[in-house]
Amino acid sequence: MDLKRFWRHIVMTPWQAAKAFPPKALEAIGRAVAEHEKRHRGEVRFVVEAELTTAQLWADLGSRARAVELFAMQGVWDTAERTGVLVYVMLADHKVEIVADRGISAKVAQPEWQAICTTMQEAFRAGRFEEGAVAGVHAIANLLERHFPAGDDNRNELPDQPVML
To answer: All domains of the chain, ordered by start, with CATH?
Structure first.
């Protein structure tokens, strides 16, 4: 186990997570998701997690593996066109992961997702959490609008509000 990583998770508190993503920021992210989902057939789920448990750290669970777990747990895979996208923010690790369902992965390459993650991480490093998150949602929406424009039956299949774990 990486002791530096372990201590980052131990000292991360729910208070710090709430300071980074206060209700106003969560509302802005939810509004951005809802606004953009009217223009594409994708479903975006935004999840913020402050820290992992000791058991998860001992198992050496990485941010990507945790994002994949949450992709399933949040039901992001369960959309009609397989167009779900999970944005996962792991505060203690300073990581952002984007997991896209297979319908989207067939059309959007991983480097495009990684570029969005990098942009968000840079904003977060500068303390601009709301701005970085909303910019990430906008960038994801631009990709989805290009490949999955809204159609006649554009149902909202997943909640738009972010989840704080």
So the answer is: 3-9+22-150+160-164 (3.10.310.50)
